[in-house]
Write a structure and sequence with these properties.
eight-stranded antiparallel sheet
Length: 287
């Protein structure tokens, strides 16, 4: 799933390629991708893109005097830029193509989704706050006013494990499964630790790991073409998705805890005092 760094890079890429250009066609290929119907997608046609914004993991294309095109790529979605779109309208079918946006130049982009779980979402709205997922977002962790004190207030009273708290979009916007693993590894903290139990020193360490991990990931992704962002993300991860590999910090074997629809990775030596974590359902360390 694209998270804050990749969506930030997509925002920058689209700003360079879309702003100042006119949308001439918006072609939904998979009907399930559209989550709104008023205004219709045709309300975007004939309008100039004036800005591209990011709200957490949401991309927001603003048009001149018209609606916004807001999209959430979800787990299997992606944006594919094309300097020249194929001629003719795409045919609905079983392929990954979900929606196409064409510019007056002949360029444009496709929104695609791999897999059988169709969660890619597109909204055409007058205001991004009309999108439920945007309206309930917590603060952006890279915002100038997101300081350590604000972070500490968010965690105060949180009885959840820190892994789940970091992934909660209503608490902090933009962090998902992969970067929460990376942040916790950088902070040398167990993903099962209760958020409310953090000491002031641990809170400071976690805050610094959060900001540093995301800032460095954004820096690695900035300036890359949309098609290279997935490879950059995977190559930059130190523990997530690397079960069985040596930890780049201490050399211990990276381990995994599986859930029904996802998994987390961590280093026992760096994060849990050398003890492997039990199955998530047990919510405790193995003795």
């Amino acid at each position: 799933m694209p998270e804050l760094p990749e969506v930030e890079a997509l925002k920058d890429f689209l700003t360079d390629h879309l702003v100042g250009h006119e949308i001439v066609r918006v072609l939904p290929v998979a009907i399930s991708v559209l989550k709104t119907y008023d205004p219709p997608v045709t309300a975007l046609e004939g309008r100039e893109v004036t800005a591209v914004h990011r709200h957490g993991k949401f991309l927001d294309l603003r048009t001149d005097g018209g609606p916004h095109l807001v999209t959430h790529l979800a787990r299997g979605g992606w944006l594919q830029w094309k300097d020249r779109l194929p001629d003719g309208a795409p045919r609905p079918g079983k392929g990954p193509l979900a929606l196409r946006v064409a510019l007056e130049t002949g360029a444009g982009f496709d929104l695609t989704e791999a897999g059988t779980q169709k969660r890619l979402a597109v909204y055409v709205v007058r205001d991004p706050q009309e999108v439920p997922g945007v309206a309930r977002l917590g603060p952006d962790p890279l915002a100038d006013d997101f300081d350590e004190e604000r972070f500490a207030r968010l965690l105060a009273g949180e009885r959840r494990q820190i892994k789940g708290a970091l992934r909660d979009q209503s608490l902090i916007a933009g962090v998902g499964n992969a970067y929460s693993d990376e942040i916790l590894h950088a902070a040398k903290m167990s993903p099962f630790k209760l958020a409310a139990s953090l000491t002031p020193r641990e809170t400071r360490t976690l805050y610094e790991a959060l900001r540093t991990t995301l800032t460095e990931a954004v820096a690695r992704s900035r300036g890359l073409a949309a098609g290279r962002l997935k490879a950059e993300k995977k190559g930059g991860l130190r523990v997530h998705g690397r079960t069985g590999e040596p930890c780049p910090v201490c050399g211990d074997t990276i381990r995994e805890v599986s859930f029904s629809d996802s998994s987390l990775q961590y280093c026992p030596t760096c994060q849990t005092g050398g003890k492997p974590l039990a199955d998530r359902r047990l919510s405790r360390l193995l003795k």
